[in-house]
Automatic annotation (TrEMBL):
This is Reverse transcriptase. Keywords: Nucleotidyltransferase, RNA-directed DNA polymerase, Transferase. It comes from Gossypium australe. The keyword Transport does not apply. GO terms for molecular function: RNA-directed DNA polymerase activity.
Amino acid sequence: MNFKIHGVDLVKETKENVKVIRECLNPASDRQKSYSDLKRKEIEYQVSDRVFLKVSPWKKVLRFGRKGKLSPRLIGPYKITERFRPVAFRLALSSELEKRHDVFHVSMLRRY
């Protein structure tokens, strides 16, 4: 027997398959979210707080003291001078970083 699926039947079968796949993905997605939420913490910074700044994006551009494994992961502390959004902050940077952009995402900051 050689069956061929035509037009409407093909669309109907595809929709059913997509529905089954989505139903299977939801529990897996919820489980992954619950695991990642355990590690996630909400940190609120205020203007005039002091924070450390993460160095990793600048590793190849600027050198802070040492080279290689011994190079610092965080620099600072720097004072927060302005808050743009819940996740964007302007810092009062030192003279060695004055040519750098002074607005940073909250993921780049660590509490002092």
